[in-house]
Automatic annotation (TrEMBL), chain A:
<feature type="transmembrane region" description="Helical">
    <location>
        <begin position="12"/>
        <end position="35"/>
    </location>
</feature>
<keyword id="KW-0812">Transmembrane</keyword>
<keyword id="KW-0472">Membrane</keyword>
<dbReference type="InterPro" id="IPR000515">
    <property type="entry name" value="MetI-like"/>
</dbReference>
<keyword id="KW-1133">Transmembrane helix</keyword>
<protein>
    <submittedName>
        <fullName>Multiple sugar transport system permease protein</fullName>
    </submittedName>
</protein>
<dbReference type="Pfam" id="PF00528">
    <property type="entry name" value="BPD_transp_1"/>
</dbReference>
<feature type="transmembrane region" description="Helical">
    <location>
        <begin position="74"/>
        <end position="93"/>
    </location>
</feature>
<feature type="domain" description="ABC transmembrane type-1">
    <location>
        <begin position="68"/>
        <end position="281"/>
    </location>
</feature>
TrEMBL record, chain B:
<feature type="transmembrane region" description="Helical">
    <location>
        <begin position="30"/>
        <end position="52"/>
    </location>
</feature>
<dbReference type="InterPro" id="IPR050901">
    <property type="entry name" value="BP-dep_ABC_trans_perm"/>
</dbReference>
<keyword id="KW-0472">Membrane</keyword>
<feature type="transmembrane region" description="Helical">
    <location>
        <begin position="122"/>
        <end position="146"/>
    </location>
</feature>
<feature type="domain" description="ABC transmembrane type-1">
    <location>
        <begin position="87"/>
        <end position="278"/>
    </location>
</feature>
<keyword id="KW-0812">Transmembrane</keyword>
<keyword id="KW-1003">Cell membrane</keyword>
<feature type="transmembrane region" description="Helical">
    <location>
        <begin position="211"/>
        <end position="234"/>
    </location>
</feature>
<feature type="transmembrane region" description="Helical">
    <location>
        <begin position="158"/>
        <end position="178"/>
    </location>
</feature>
């Protein structure tokens, strides 16, 4: 139905306007701000300074590099674990068993919980005086008074587990949806050919899920890279900036010091890195090449 | 001992449509299915339970099964701290975003699914690209826009921002749902003399009810949970949303875990309930092809 009417344009107009004002224009303005000195609290110093922000970022700012390294570590660990656990969970709740609908609703439920609320819940669990570790210590397991969020040795795993709790259901839901599109006769044919359970998983399930896995890991990697809510409220980037990601660093520049120029330069760096790795990932994974 | 453990029943309520009972009593099913499921359920539910216990347990007690329970913490946060107002703000933003996202996604999704128009591919590509734009990193320019538009400290402003950031994905999902409704139904109605608009409302829209429920609920959940925009653009306390209120509670109630937990329950109950109802529409919708666009 190729039409020459204005109807489709009228239908997408609200979306276009919103995207132009709140997505396209901000990107352009970030690019512009990144070339300026712009601090809300010191407006008399504002002005065009060329690439000075980038020079400062690349050559003088230790925290930029540190936050970048931590961002990479965070994304790889978080997305990797979420994918594996999410796939296992999807395979489990795709089986037939009594109470399956309830089990699905329960295991997927943390998906609906916000980052701040996740922090609230896990602070209750982790707190050294009345948390789970204290409870376990009372039962004779581990030491009492452990503050997992305050100890540099445990703050990273503790934060990872907290985000896993909320993040695994995303993969489980997406992969479950894709599992349900695998034709049953593929498995029957594989069984007839003598393929065991593991063999069927490797040669039927995984190839079918490939595009869904590529797409979900990519989306999730971007979201986890940008995840600020949880880390901001759970650790605040600490102790000693150990858990500061690049977006968290940007958010703190914006919220706390109102240094918009330098924050914009950091944002541009984040964009370029995300764009580069997204394209690289899609190329390497040959996404959609079988379709 | 394993004989008792491998029984396929799990102690949960059977769903209305009973799945086929497994005929083979395969002992590996316990290790493959029941054990990991129970472990994962514990991982999911213990944190929720922990919050619930703190919320209803009188201050100073440490019992894991508190009785009698108390509602004093709820009274503290709802009336004392102002969570009643935050709840109302979150509800307004959630419902407002739900309406705008659903309506605009339905319009755009219909355009993508039912028309071929110049610029369509570019539009689709732009929608996909927005998924790579980090909301957190847009705070600075958005703040400037909001300030110059006079949208700071306004619930309307937050509805607009939430809508802008959620619409692209909602629109892509919706176009998949619309594509799944056979176009022949609509064409038949038009042959019978309906206008395209009448045909849409009479034939297609009723078929899209699950899609509207799914897309709308996710817009609601997203807006309800949005923290950074609310923190950044609504700094006056009478415009706080639940996540912002909670984030302050994290600092202030450092010793009052009961109040923190009660605030958490207030923030969790609506979204978890909504999600429990709609998650199966989401799985169905995604697997019906929406994810492939």
């Amino acid at each position: 139905m190729r039409t020459r009417t204005w109807a489709p344009y009228a239908l997408i107009a609200p979306t276009l306007v919103l995207m132009a004002v709140f997505l396209v224009y901000p990107i352009a303005s970030v690019a512009w701000f990144s070339l300026r000195q712009h601090t809300v609290t010191q407006p008399w110093k504002n002005g065009f300074i060329g690439f000075e922000n980038f020079r400062r970022m690349l050559f003088e700012d230790q925290l930029f590099w540190q936050s970048l390294v931590f961002s990479a570590k965070w994304v790889v660990v978080e997305v990797g674990l979420q994918l594996v656990l999410g796939l296992v969970l999807a395979l489990i709740v795709n089986e037939t068993f009594v109470g399956r609908a309830l089990a699905r609703a329960l295991v997927f439920s943390p998906w609906a919980v916000s980052g701040v609320l996740t922090t609230g819940i896990w602070i209750l669990l982790y707190n050294p005086s009345t948390g789970v570790f204290q409870q376990l210590a009372q039962w004779g397991i581990g030491d009492p008074g452990t503050s997992v969020l305050g100890d540099p040795a445990t703050v990273f795993p503790a934060t990872v587990v907290t985000e896993l709790w909320r993040g695994v259901p995303f993969f489980a839901i997406l992969l479950l949806a894709d599992l349900q599109t695998i034709p049953k006769d593929l498995y029957e044919a594989a069984s007839v050919d003598g393929a065991g359970r593991w063999r069927r998983f490797v040669s039927v399930t995984l190839p079918h899920l490939r595009d869904a896995i590529v797409l979900s890991t990519l989306l999730r990697a971007v979201w986890e890279f940008n995840n600020v809510d949880l880390i901001y409220t759970l650790t605040g980037g600490g102790p000693a900036n150990q858990t500061t990601t690049l977006p968290l660093y940007v958010a703190r520049k914006a919220v706390d010091s109102h240094d918009f120029g330098y924050g914009s330069a950091l944002t541009m760096a984040g964009f370029v890195i995300l764009l580069f790795f997204s394209i690289l990932y899609l190329r390497l994974s040959k996404f959609g090449s079988r379709a | 001992m394993t004989q008792t453990l491998i029984r396929p029943e799990t102690p949960v309520v059977p769903p209305p449509s009973r799945p086929r009972r497994s005929k083979h009593r395969d002992p590996s099913r316990f290790f493959r299915l029941h054990l990991p499921l129970v472990l994962y359920l514990l991982f999911t539910l213990i944190p929720f339970y922990w919050m619930l216990v703190f919320a209803v347990r009188p201050a100073g007690e440490t019992s894991l099964v508190p009785w009698p329970i108390t509602f004093e913490h709820f009274d503290t946060v709802w009336n004392g701290v102002g969570f009643g107002l935050f709840f109302q703000n979150s509800l307004i933003i959630g419902v407002g975003t739900l309406v705008t996202v659903t309506v605009f996604a339905l319009m755009g999704g219909y355009a993508l699914a039912r028309f071929k128009f110049r610029g369509q591919r570019v539009f689709l590509l732009a929608l996909l690209c927005t998924q790579f734009i980090p909301g957190a990193m847009m705070l600075i320019p958005l703040f400037v826009i909001f300030k110059s538009a006079g949208l700071l400290n306004s619930l309307t402003g937050l509805i607009i921002a939430d809508t802008a950031f959620q619409l692209p994905l909602a629109l892509i999902l919706m176009s998949g749902f619309v594509r799944n409704v056979p176009v022949e139904l609509e064409e038949a109605a038009m042959v019978d003399g309906c206008t395209r608009l009448r045909a849409f409302f009479a034939v297609t829209l009723p078929q899209l009810r699950p899609a509207l429920v799914a897309v709308g609920s996710f817009a609601f959940i997203g807006a309800w949970n949005n923290f950074l925009f609310a923190l950044m653009f609504a700094s006056k306390q009478d415009k706080f949303t639940l996540p912002v209120g909670l984030s302050y509670a994290l600092g202030e109630f450092n010793t009052d875990f009961g109040a923190l937990a009660a605030g958490g329950v207030v923030a969790a109950v609506p979204v978890v309930l909504v999600f429990a109802v709609v998650q199966r529409f989401l799985v169905q919708g995604l697997s019906a092809g929406a994810v492939k666009g």
